[in-house]
Amino acid sequence: MDLARNLFRSTIGRKLIMAATGVVLIGFVAGHLVGNLQVFEDPDRINGYAHFLQSLGPALWLVRLFLLACVCLHVWSATVLSLESIKARGSEPYRVKRWIDASFASRYMRGTGYVVLAFILYHLAHFTVGAAQPATFKANIPHYVMKGDYHILGVTVVQAGTEVLDCRSMVIGGFRNPVVAVFYMVAVGLLSLHLLHGAESLFQTFGWRNRSWERALKAVVTLLCAAYFLGNLAIPGSVLLGMLR
Ligand code: HEM
Fold first, then answer.
1. Of 100-109, 191-200, 231-240, which gets the smallest average pLDDT?
2. How far is CA 231 from CA 81, 132, 237, in A?
3. Please, is 245 exposed, middle or buried when counting C-beta atoms within 10 Å of its C-beta (0-12, 13-18, 19+)?
4. Ligand 1 atom, smallest distance to 184 CA
5. pLDDT greater than 90 at residue 104
6. How is domain 2-240 classified at the architecture level of CATH?
7. Dist. CA 36 → ligand 1 center (Å)
8. Number of Cβ atoms within 10 Å of the Cβ of 211
9. How close are the terminal C-alpha atoms of the chain, in Å?
10. Cβ pair 174, 182 in contact under 8 A
11. For 25, what's the count of Cα atoms within 13 Å in the CB-facing half-sphere?
12. Are 33 and 232 a contacting pair, CB within 8 Å?
């Protein structure tokens, strides 16, 4: 009980909450990208995958609630830590902004974080609820009949002949609108910047960063964030260029 109270009330506790929820959210966005990249393969792949996720029913809702709790705790701890640091600095503004040591990504953590939050809300309205672009949403696209079985780790999770949502057409239809596609590309760019600094700082918070491998860590994180950005950029970008249809 004391441990939980200290976690929420102390600065280090809030940093740990921010880092631990950050790990979960990084795991989610990485897995989501791997799933989404199936859009470049046979339509059976992404449509089978989306159908499998939907068929999880109550288990899917448990995962959704867990992710929502992580997002809330992450935003809460970041906001409180930010307000504390503003308070500690006093109301007097800096005469000279001391940004010399801070990277671009670290300077704009708060800004990129809130834009990503706004993007997630738009994204849910777009592909989960269908309020953003009703014409290309689930109810308005014909169903897709699976040509073959869809397997995960060798286990058949969707059988050939099953009628499923045509998730591929929904995604491609959504990104045919250039405004929507460009908005996604900008948002994933900001998300990648957010991850760039966030991933490094969580190693610091957990005490896993030291001088001997600081540079290697930075290089690996930068490489992974660049790959993450390019992977996400590829989907709306290919639709815009007419390479994915
Ligand atoms: C080009 C990039 C992306 C594509 C094509 C994409 C595609 C999709 C699709 C099709 C769904 C709806 C699945 C369904 O209800 O059947 C979805 C849900 C979702 N996406 Fe994305 N997504 C992208 C990027 C992102 C990013 C960057 C984030 C996080 C920052 C994200 C977070 C989510 C969340 C939280 C859901 C809701 C999951 C659920 O309903 O259980 N997506 N995405």
1. 100-109
2. 32, 23, 10
3. exposed
4. 1
5. no
6. Up-down Bundle (1.20)
7. 8
8. 6
9. 55
10. no
11. 25
12. yes
Mean pLDDT in residue range 28-52? 97
Instruction: List, in sequence order, every beta strand (DSSP E) within 64-223.
Output: 144-145, 150-152, 155-158, 163-164
Q: 159: helix, coil or strand?
A: coil
Cβ–Cβ under 8 Å, residues 181 and 236: yes
CA-to-CA distance for 79 and 91, rounded, in angstroms?
17
Q: Identify which has the larger pLDDT, 101 or 85.
A: 85
Domain segments of the chain as ranges: 2-240
Location of structure tokens 């939980």:
4
pLDDT average, residue stretch 115-137: 87
Whether ligand 1 lies within 6 angstroms of the CB of 191 is answered as yes
pLDDT > 60? residue 158: yes
Instruction: State the pTM of this model.
Output: 0.91
164 lines ligand 1 (CB under 6 A): no
Of 32, 40, 55, 75, best ligand 1 pocket probe by most atoms within 8 Å of the beta carbon: 32
Separation of alpha carbons 66 and 24, rounded Å: 10
Q: Does ligand 1 have an atom closer than 6 angstroms to the CB of 171?
A: yes
Q: Give the sign of the dihedral formed by CA 107, CA 184, CA 55, CA 61.
A: positive
Answer whether 172 contacts ligand 1 (Cβ < 6 A).
no
Taking the centre of ligand 1 as the mean of its atom positions, its distance from the CA of residue 127, in whole angstroms, is 7
